[in-house]
């Protein structure tokens, strides 16, 4: 008859003669690669501002990235077919998501903006949709040190 050893700590506890292997230290967790977040909305400030029917000036706004649909749909608009210069007005009316306290931004709002604000928005649209950002990495021509520059100022005349 075979005798079974009774473990000191009860059932499942190791015998004194059984060696418990020490656990190897775990390697530190590898830091996860930073997840790149796609920025789709960009704040802006109009140089002059849109003046609504009550006389309120709206300057702070947000523009989102344009989609292919945003650029194609205005081409079917009769106003754009009759006057291609109207394309930017319709397009900006689609991608400006907020302007001051206005409840809704549409091409009628853009159509009644000052020419300087329209020019600013056209330039801003090109900046955010061309590269996905408004900053560029450059090197100093004197010391070759890398740094970033703003491609367009937040106000007309700035660079």
Describe this structure in words.
The protein has helices spanning 68-72, 78-82, 87-95, 107-111, 115-130, and strands at 41-51, 57-64, 96-99, 135-139, 146-150. It contains 5 helices and 5 strands; from the N terminus they run E-E-H-H-H-E-H-H-E-E. Residues 153-159 have low confidence and may be disordered. 25% of the residues lie in helices and 21% in strands. The chain is elongated, with a radius of gyration of 31 Å.
List key phrases describing it.
alpha+beta, single chain, 3-stranded antiparallel sheet, two-stranded antiparallel sheet
What is the overall shape?
A: elongated
Helix-strand sequence: EEHHHEHHEE
Structural class, from helix and strand content? alpha+beta
Helical content band: 25-40%
Low-pLDDT windows of residues: 153-159
Main sheet characteristics: 3 strands, antiparallel
How is the topology of this model organized?
Blueprint: E1 41-51, E2 57-64, H1 68-72, H2 78-82, H3 87-95, E3 96-99, H4 107-111, H5 115-130, E4 135-139, E5 146-150
Antiparallel strand pairs: 1-2, 2-3, 4-5
In short:
The chain is α+β, with helices and mostly antiparallel strands and 159 residues long. The chain contains five helices and five strands, in the order ββαααβααββ.
């Amino acid at each position: 008859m075979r005798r079974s050893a009774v473990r000191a700590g009860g059932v499942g506890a190791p015998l004194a003669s059984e060696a418990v292997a020490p656990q190897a230290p775990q390697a530190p967790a590898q830091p996860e690669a930073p997840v790149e977040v796609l920025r789709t909305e960009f704040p802006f400030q109009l140089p002059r501002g849109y003046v609504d029917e009550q006389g309120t000036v709206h300057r702070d706004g947000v523009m989102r990235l344009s989609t292919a649909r945003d650029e194609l749909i205005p081409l079917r608009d009769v106003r754009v077919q009759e006057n291609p210069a109207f394309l930017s007005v319709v397009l900006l009316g689609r991608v400006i998501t907020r302007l001051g306290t206005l409840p809704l931004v549409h091409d009628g709002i853009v159509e009644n903006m000052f020419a300087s604000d329209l020019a600013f928005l056209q330039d801003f649209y090109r900046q955010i949709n061309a590269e996905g950002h408004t900053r560029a990495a450059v090197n100093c021509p004197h010391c070759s040190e890398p740094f970033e520059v703003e491609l367009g100022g937040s106000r007309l005349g700035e660079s």
